[in-house]
């Protein structure tokens, strides 16, 4: 009997990235993620996490290696199918909250009226009706981030690339957006790659946690998180979750120390 491999999601092979003149951001990174997996990446500051996400999104180039998603090569070719959610999303300041979401849908080719209606549904689902016509400058940071996340998820990307998207938010906004993202992943079975500094967040959200070493970034270890896919049913203080978080914490502590030493040596 042959066992068939799961379909390939993000595939990164022998990836090297050097920022001129000589900053080695990624050194021979190899990563194979099955399609539809929720993966978290954790690693010390400066180890190349943002660089890796930008390369996967197709908005950053690289010198050596091969990067593909669902069998399609990514080499500096951005697409709405691979969208990044940044820590501080930039909305169009001249468009209202709802119009920002509708604009993303129209850019994807959805007709105007349909885009408006879908944008409205996202606003209602988030309980943000009161802010639908407000401009970004009139919104709190948490609400702006919510609209930014809706804008990405509404266009239904196949790969959602998250660069510490919730780290500046208060607890309520963070928890509510974590659950939105989990539901999107659970219902659509799209791939999510989630960079965070927060071990508890990584373990709470992801099916697997990728640990990166201090600069230059290489993959140090991949930790499975055998918790139910319906993560919103898991208590944050469940012993199993805390055990995995402790394990990840111990592994990462070494790398953080190395990164700090390197920072002192190099002065950045
Ligand atoms: N545009 C750039 N030009 C030069 N160096 C950069 C640039 N972007 C990032 N770097 C450097 O590359 C390394 C990896 O950065 P980054 O991917 O942002 O790491 P992380 O997101 O893990 O903190 C760091 O040493 C950083 O200073
Ligand atoms: Mg970063």
TrEMBL record:
One Pfam family cited in the UniProt record for this chain: ABC_tran
UniProt keywords, alphabetically: ATP-binding, Nucleotide-binding, Transport
CDD domains: ABC_NrtD_SsuB_transporters
GO molecular function terms noted in the UniProt entry: ATP binding; ATP hydrolysis activity
Coiled-coil region: none
Domain ABC transporter stretches: 10-235
Protein name per UniProt: ABC transporter-related protein
């Amino acid at each position: 009997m042959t066992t068939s491999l799961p379909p390939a999601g993000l595939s990164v092979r022998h990836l090297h990235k050097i920022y001129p003149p000589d900053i080695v951001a990624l050194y021979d990174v190899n990563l194979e993620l099955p399609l539809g997996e929720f993966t978290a990446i954790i690693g010390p500051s400066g180890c190349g996490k943002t660089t890796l996400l930008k390369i996967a999104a197709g908005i950053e180039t690289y010198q050596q290696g091969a990067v593909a998603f669902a069998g399609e090569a990514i080499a500096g070719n951005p697409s709405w199918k691979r969208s990044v959610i940044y820590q501080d999303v930039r909305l169009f300041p001249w468009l209202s909250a709802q119009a920002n979401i509708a604009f993303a849908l129209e850019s994807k080719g959805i007709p105007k009226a349909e885009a408006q209606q879908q944008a409205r549904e996202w606003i209602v689902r988030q309980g943000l009706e009161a802010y639908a016509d407000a401009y970004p400058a009139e919104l709190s940071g948490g609400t702006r981030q919510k609209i930014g996340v809706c804008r990405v998820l509404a266009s239904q990307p196949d790969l959602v690339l998250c660069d510490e998207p919730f780290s500046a938010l208060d607890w309520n906004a963070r928890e509510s957006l974590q659950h939105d993202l989990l539901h999107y992943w659970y219902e659509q079975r799209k791939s999510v790659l989630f960079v965070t500094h927060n071990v508890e967040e990584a373990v709470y959200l992801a099916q697997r946690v990728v640990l990166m070493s201090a600069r230059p970034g290489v993959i140090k270890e991949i930790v499975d998180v055998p918790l139910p896919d319906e993560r919103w049913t898991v208590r944050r203080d469940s012993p199993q979750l805390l055990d995995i978080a402790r394990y990840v914490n111990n592994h990462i502590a070494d790398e953080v120390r190395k990164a700090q030493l390197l920072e002192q040596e190099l002065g950045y």
